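2 proteins. here.
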Amino acid sequence: MQHTGGPGWRITMDTSSALLIALYIRDVAGLDGAGTPALSHIAPQVRAADHTRLTAHIGGAAALRTQWEAWWETLMAGRPQMEPELSPPEFSSFAATPALQRVLQAHFGAALTWARERTSAYNRMAEQRETLGSGKILAELVQNRELELGRNARDFTLTIVEMPLAEQRAWFIEPDRLIMSQHLLDDHDAFLSYVQPVVELLV
């Protein structure tokens, strides 16, 4: 986790285990384009499995998509206390979404291992960035905007959630969250094109 801040404002960059697991489940279930925002595939990409027999008697692929999207909407709301608990092997908090519950039961072990590996890799990358001072770009964006406006930044918090995504871009989740490919920061111009407008909006 990386923090940048000043009087009244704070920007945090981190990854999220819950979102990693949800995206793995989405991709292994072949739910292309599911959820709002519809993020790109995870990277490295996982092979989709056929869940027809697993979910046929409980609504099939349509129910699985609807139930995953409802879960994703809860995760996007950014209120951890509202998120259903990931409690193997039964996943009882997903009892109202049986197709998703069955897919979680089938793939949670692989999803958890994948998420832990990605989190470890992210933490190593974040340490390297800290050493190189890469996070300073965010403070500079705020300071430049303050100079433009001739005033201090308003009080704000921005949480940037970095994920291993195939598409190098960011998605703004109002009012104060960005989901971003974890390698977007490596492309200075592309990073600015997505992040600078959000910082200017908040400052």
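next one coming up
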Amino acid sequence: MSFDASLIGRFLKGDKRACARIISIVEDRRPGYEEYIEAIQPHVGSAYVVGITGPPGVGKSTLINKLAAGFLESNANIAVIAVDPSSPFTGGAVLGDRIRIGEIGLNPKFYFRSLSSRGSLGGLSEAAVDVIRVMDAFKKEIILVETVGTGQNEVDVMRACDTTVVVTMPGTGDDIQAQKAGILEIGNIFVINKADRDGVERTLRELQTMLMMNPLNDKYETPIILTRSNTGDGIKEVKTAVERHRDYLESSGWLSIKRSERNVRAFKNLINSKIIDEINLIISHHHGYDDIETQVKNGGLSPHRASIQLMEYINKKILCR
């Protein structure tokens, strides 16, 4: 597929169809997608990215809906990227572009896109991180990113976003489970949704106890906010907390540091991915690979010895180029 400069032109003028087209190219990793990422690079860097994560069923989608509406009331350009579980058959998002946004979907300043996690344990695929960059270049001032909510491996959210909101609710588990999920390392804001349920006091105490052990709280006091997203209670407080955290990051200099680290991390991840692709291509031309794999299956060759043999083959091929 050849690069379409006119598509970029329409995109930069605010054409939503052009934006959708570029997102599809980037998400599907179609040949030449890097050229589109390079073309939008000069226009990236002004959006503020907020990650919303937490276990399934805690009400993240409803909370995001209300939070997006709050930002729209402030006359901000908003995008929501929802990373859905991948279909085992198509690799695409199971729920697709979910009909859940309501009236705010009609607002010209609002853009919604549902993506597939493509098996990414952290809830965000590399393609999804690139889509965030696309929405940034599309002049969206606030980008809300909802993850699958796998619980154990949500570190990708923290690394891809400026502020991370961790959503939980009463009865989702004890403090040991929460610590296993690594939420102390991820969350800048904690939300206890469905706060009218029994057990909210216990959940609040557990989070408060955990945050007391967080050394970062000496410089920034992590808020815990009670919400009922179905009624809108507490949503303004969440919005205020996001703005307060942004002010902290900007005034302390941490925002530029985080974004610089994010750029380097993206670079290294892409290099690693391309190296793996190149190695797999070399291995695919190894006529004895099937025999080596059969020996490993039968126990005639250890996985370590097999890997050494393949690396010797790979090194020879690389040196001969």
